[in-house]
Amino acid sequence: MSRMAALAVVCVFGVGCGYHTAGRAVTIPENVRTIAIPAFVNQTQTFKIEQMLTAAVVREFATRTHYHIVNQVNDDADAVLHGTVLSTYTTPLTYDSQTGRAASVLVVVSMKVSLLDKQGKVLYQNPAYLFREQYEVARDLNSFFEEDSPAFQRLSRDFAQTLVSNILEGF
Fold this sequence. Notes:
Layout: H1 2-15, E1 34-36, E2 41-42, H2 49-64, E3 68-70, E4 79-95, E5 102-117, E6 122-136, H3 150-169
Parallel strand pairs: 1-3, 1-4, 2-4
Antiparallel strand pairs: 4-5, 5-6
């Protein structure tokens, strides 16, 4: 009887549940060493959002990965990351009871993103990439998307971290 119990314990621990740690898959092939990230296209009324998001994504790739990043599409690039900002949206979530002004906002950025290799093979693609994040607002809600706004810089950094993770992890 004890032999049967020992065998059962070994089987239970040896089989596992089939789950694995997320974030281990890398969808970019090993032959990709240089990635071109040209300026994203802006189809919104939000001034210079494409510049802030592009710069943040370039910084994130450069600091988190071993890839050589260039800003122009050329023959040296093994892959090209294209992005188009489709829409931006802010909406108040909470209000300051003293002033009646927004205390936090939900920011939504919608993009079309694709990473293609030299032959045009899709390495990553999301035609409806949606980034949502809540931010505290210290100033006027209308100034959130101003180029020099600390909140806008935070949004760009958070967006870049999420996008690069999604590309590297294949989500």
